[in-house]
Design a protein that fits this description.
The protein is mainly beta and about 110 residues long. The chain has two helices and eight strands.
Length: about 110
């Protein structure tokens, strides 16, 4: 997989490179959105770079299964641009075993 890394501006105008910062987490947001990507938190906002929406979990034992073991053959991910949500919209965040998701977020 080839990745193009671009430099963006954060809310303060400082440069950052979203593809290389933050740890991989599943972010469950209100209204049922489940996102995965590299998470950084700043000034009450959660930014998810290398973001995908988890459309179908494809698990037999919940989100913890894909957090620990990576996506299954039935997991459906829809890539989307870097996504920022207010921390009050976050229901929970699950740390992922990054090595299992490495190909998804290089």
């Amino acid at each position: 997989m080839e990745t193009n890394v671009t430099t963006d501006k954060d809310t303060t105008g400082a440069d950052f490179v979203p593809a290389t910062t933050g740890s991989v987490k599943i972010v469950v947001c209100d209204r049922g959105f489940v996102l995965i990507g590299r998470v950084t938190i700043k000034d009450n906002y959660v930014t998810i770079s290398n973001c995908s929406c988890v459309r179908t979990w494809g698990t037999t034992s919940g989100l913890g299964q894909i957090a620990k073991n990576g996506p299954t053959t039935k997991t459906k991910l829809d890539e989307q641009p870097t996504t920022t949500v207010h921390e009050l919209q976050v229901v929970m965040m699950i740390d992922c075993e990054e090595s299992k998701w490495n190909l998804q977020f290089q």
